[in-house]
Each structure stands twice: as C-alpha cells, then as structure tokens.
C-alpha cells in the first residue's frame, strides 16, 4: 500500500501545502486502502465517489488560495453523525435506510475546514457496547492480533470502526463519540489517541442521541497533535445545542510539546482495582515515572465514590436512552413493520428494529423511570453522580490533572465477553467517571503487553482544560516513543 | 431485587417493544442480574445531596420565539415510510 496512508494528519497537511501530492492522490490512496481492508468491516458505507469529488473541490480551493485548516485530509465518520444525503444507520436496523436531509454540526465544521469524507464507520448499535459486537452490521475486527495467534480481536467500542480504521491506515483521523468510554477504550485497544472533550465543547446537534447528558463527540487519531487538529475543527459553540458551551476554542495543537514541568499530577488510589492485570499496573507505574522525569510532581489522591460510577451510569444512561429512543416508532422515518393497530405497529417495528443489547437497556431505563422505582433508582443515581463529580472537584483542588490506565485489560477476543452483560460493562470502569462528571479525558498509547497488544494511559483534566491534556499527552507520547503498528493480515 | 416475568411483560409494554414469549424468562434473569449489581448504590450516603441532572452548570439559554426554519415538507417527508401528498400515512388511530 502507498506510503501516503502511513502519514500522520500533520504530515499529510504539510505535504498538501507544499504540493508534494494532491488531495485527489491522497484520497485515492485511502480509498484503495479502505477497499483492501474490507475483512476488518470498519466501514458500514464507503463513499468513494463523494470522497473524490470532495478531493477535487479541495484541490481547486487550494489552487485558489483558499485552503482551510484540514484542507484535503481524508477522514472517516462514525455512523452516528448525520450526513446530508448519505445514509446514517447508528449501527441499527431501526433507522432502515434513513438518509438525513441535514448535516451534523461537527461534520459540517470538518467540511468547512476542507476535510474529505471516505465513508461511514461501524459502531455498536446506538453506541451501546464496548466491543462493536452489538452492531447490526456485524462486529469490526481489530487490525491487531496477539503475537502468533490469528484469533479475531475486538477493536473496542462503541467507536470500534473509527479506532480500527485509524490504526489500519484507512483514514488520517476519524470522528467518534463517547458516552461511557467509547472514544478512549477503543483508542487504548488499537494504539491510537482519542480524546473526549469537556461536555458541551462539541455540539451534539445532528449526532444520533444515546444518553444526552453524557454524550460527547471527539476525534480518534494517530498522534496527540493530530487529535488536537481534529478537535479544533470539531469544537465550538452551536446555538442549535442548548448544552453547547459558548466559550473560546484555544489553539489546541499549540499545547502539544509545551513543558509540563511543575504540574501536579494526581494518581487516584481507588483505580487500583482487584484483579487488575500486572501489566496494566506496570504500565501505570511507567506513566507515573515518565511524567515525574518530565518534571511533574506526582500526588496520590482519593476519589472515594469511584466504585459506584458504573452502577450509577447503568441507571442514568439507560434512563436517558429509553427516553431518546422512544422516537423510533416507525411513523416518520426508519423501519415500519406491518401490523393491524397503531400500538402493534410500534411494538413490532421496535422489536424488529432494535438489537438485544439496545432492548435490554431500553427495558432497564423504562423500569428505573417507572412509577414506584423512580426515587429508589433514578433519583438516587443522580445524587450518586453528584458525589462522583464532587470527588473530582475536591481532587482538582490539589492537582492539575489525573493519570490512570484507560481500560482494565488489553483487547479481548470477539465473543469472549458476550454472555455476561455486567462483565462487558466493566470495560468502562476507568472511563465512565469522566462522563458522569462532564470532564475531558484522553487516551494515549503507552506500550504493548506481552502478547503484542497496545495499552493506553488516560489523562483526566479540569473542565475546559483540554489544552493541558494535549501537553501531558504529548509528554507521554514522546517518552513512550510508541511506534508499533499492526502487522497487515487483511 | 428480582425482576419477574410479569414485570418484564409490563415494562416491555411500556417501552412498546413486542418481546416474544421465549425471551421473557431469559430477560427476567438478565435484568435481575443487572439490577442486583446496581443495588450497591444503596450503600452511598446521599443525605442532603442535590441530584445532578446536567454536566453543565449554566442556565439554559433562551432564544426569541420565532420560526427559524420551516416550509419545507419535502425534507420533512423525505424518509417517510408511507406518505400521501404532504402527509405521513399512519395506521388507523380512531375507530
């Protein structure tokens, strides 16, 4: 495959600017890579004709001296973002060929800045999952394999298509979303960088809703700087999302490479969970050592309610999902099953259109919101959520950022955790607290385990302090010197 | 807290999902397992804690109450499973 697909986004933008290659050449190389990588099942829909048309238009803009910040860069779009005139599935059958007549704010900003769309990336159905196995379009297969073992592995989820495509060199970067860890866990599993920004940093308008008080968009990329460039374009106030923050978007890429000397980094003792693999523990210690060498002061902190974050999340997220997904009734768009009465049509359409995990979460959400259980479950979970957020506020009184592992294990085999919902939910044990508190969190690849699989470290910042995460992420990236790539088998 | 078959049927009805009879008992077991795991929230002292309903501590913004977009039935109806003229066709609601 052409070396054009091995470039970082930064290097590709430089090459385009210097005229070393055109966007059409760069895009064509990626289209070929996408076609050759179909065994990964990373794309639900490839849009090569649209990509080439966008690339030619981009080359024309550049020739006219009107190049944007991402001019000519081919990207993948998680199929949770509505794209005007291009089918959007959310990984579900219930959308039934839904073709938006509008563009999500986040993707419209990427196109405004000159980026090219290669297609729509696979994901867990409605972003509900940690392994991509709940997608109605089949699981994504990770480009990574254990050394000497061809068993198919998960790229993580729900943004599994985004992470696999970036890791396999199918696109220069991808959009993703994170409700409980769906950007950071797949990034950790695939040796890529993923950042979930502060809640409200990116507009949710035009992103298919899962749990509205937790959902945030963000990028998955090959380097910390690439993630900064993408987040820059994706961020900003949008009057069409009432929770979008009307704050300035700093130059995120300028933070990469800045000294982190003198920063106080918290290590939360409650993240040392029982049964954590020794390799994860060792990676964490290594990360601590790297930041200490870079001049940071390491401070142990306590987040006492950490263990209650996942159970609280599994009330709050399904409750919001059961409400959000009530819109799929087969009347105005999406799948409609034939039945005699209106109620039967609703019930049959939803039974045929939703997969098992989505149904399970809708039922949990409906149950905890139903009369008699609302106070005992939903209201209690919202109060526990406040406790969790207060833990962070307290910790950030003492430290500037936190360092933790991203996930409790390396990537697992497809099918390995499929029988036990709770075991699957535990994947998000280190990431979900950040969504509940609305904070920014980033996963940076930090090393390989004994079986040759990537592991990630997570940085957590104060609200709107993504810049500091880019500086710290850059420091870890530099110290780790992570350059491993999956050996091509597809 | 055990969720029995009758509760699953009731909740599925509320959620407007036709669950086949063969799925009711397995769902009762799965949901019971999840809710038992969630029960640990009862250990947390929540005395005097305000529920957290939003991750953003800012007042909801207001805008002028005017039409900003509209008058475009083709876009609204573009994905209709069934339509007649500028209307969605739905199953009979009133006898």
Description:
- The complex is a heterodimer of chains A (490) and B (95).
- Chain A has 490 residues and is α/β, with parallel strands linked by helices.
- Chain A has 15 helices and eleven strands.
- The radius of gyration of chain A is 21 Å and the shape is globular.
- In chain A, the strands form two sheets. An eight-stranded mixed β-sheet of chain A has the order 4-6-5-10-11-9-7-8, sandwiched between helices. Chain A has a three-stranded mixed β-sheet with strand order 1-3-2, sandwiched between helices.
- Chain B is mostly helical.
- Helices cover 35% and strands 4% of the residues of chain B.
- Chain B contains three helices and two strands; from the N terminus they run H-H-H-E-E.
- In chain B, helix 1 packs across helix 2.
- The mean pLDDT of chain B is 93.
- The interface between A and B is large, with 70 and 52 residues.
Core attributes:
heterodimer; A: 490 residues; alpha/beta; 8-stranded mixed beta sheet; 3-stranded mixed beta sheet; 15 helices; 37% helix; B: 95 residues; mainly alpha; two-stranded antiparallel sheet; flat
